[in-house]
Amino acid sequence: MNAATMPSSASLDPSASDTLPSASAVLSQLCLSYGSQSVLKDLDWRLLPGQVVGLLGRNGAGKTSLLEALLGLREAQSGSAQLFGQNALALDDAARARIGYVPQQSDLFEAFSPAQLLSYFKSFYPRWNEAKVEGLMSRWDIARDKPIAKLSGGQQQRLSIIRALAHEPDLLVLDEPVASLDPAGRRDFLRELIEQVLDRGTTVVFSTHILSDLERVAFNVAFLKSGRIGLQAPLDELLDEVRALSGPSAVIQSLIQAQGLSCLSRSPLEAGHERCLVRQAPQAQAQMQTLTLPAQISSQSVNLEDLFMELT
Asked: What CATH number is given for 241-311 in this structure?
């Protein structure tokens, strides 16, 4: 969490966070532009308590801008962002104390030592879990008294994660949180993330380009394309319900209409053929599995990489 999302210690009521509604975030018709370039376009998005959502999009799609707008760190031209029922641009201290944030670029105070940094932030949060902090500092082997500027990139990223988890937030927002960690470090972090969700029902949203990490922890995936969340759904449902159909365009379109399938994406192939990602409603999934396809149509299952390539 940085200064923009940090409460002031003077006005924070230690009991207030226990009486606020469950964590949730709602974005409605959000539009964000940089000069003449539109990044977010009438974007609607809702995050529910206990959800773990992996945000996927190509480089430059606006993932960081979306997460910053969600937290009220960037003001959109129109639309609204609400956290815990409050305007994200005008959160009170109790609401700010319920948010954990790990930005893509470290915003640590590099002249501090980790011990000094954590002691400073501890003063703002009544729910600060010192046992969790000490456990993670020891397990992740972070020197407490070494200047942060002299820590490795991976150690700095671990320290940012500890700071974001220490006050047991109800909403945890992570922007490429493991980019500097090795595979063992990523697994350890993801294990800690799952425990946080299971123990506290924390709402977690994070972006990452490492698809294997999403497959381990993201119960839901959201695809950002052309300024909108084109699709959000539980990952296991998508992998079960989505098929890639290839064949003559006319035959595929007739099949989609006849079976009531949803066409998620279309890619033209040669000679009047195309490839379509189609999804059938869960209640009709059994029919999809036993569907007799015309001889001209081939059907393949998809993985997360396929979904990323086709839907972003």
From this structure: 3.30.70
DSSP label of 16: G
Domain with CATH 3.40.50.300 in the chain: 3-226
Mean pLDDT over 149-155 rounds to 89
Question: Pairing mode, if any, of strands 78-83 and 25-34?
Answer: antiparallel
Identify the helix (H) or strand (E) that includes residue 94.
helix 93-96
Q: What's the pLDDT tens digit per position in 10-62? A: 444 434 444 434 547 999 999 999 988 999 999 999 998 888 899 999 999 99
Cβ neighbors of 231 (< 8 A, separation 6 or more) are: 222, 223, 264, 311
Where does 211-270 have alpha helices with state H?
211-217, 235-241, 249-259
Q: In the chain, where does the domain assigned CATH 3.30.70 lie?
A: 241-311
pTM of the model: 0.86
Indicate the helix (H) or strand (E) that contains 309: helix 304-311
3-226 is classed in which CATH architecture?
A: 3-Layer(aba) Sandwich (3.40)
Contact between 229 and 54 under an 8 Å Cβ cutoff? The reply is: no
Per-residue DSSP letter, 312: -
CA angle 217, 201, 188 (to 5 degrees): 40
Do residues 57 and 312 touch, judged by C-beta distance below 8 A? yes
For residue 81, which amino acid is it? Answer: A
* Token pair listed for 214: 């999403």
CA distances from 52 to 97, 169, 286 (A): 20, 14, 27
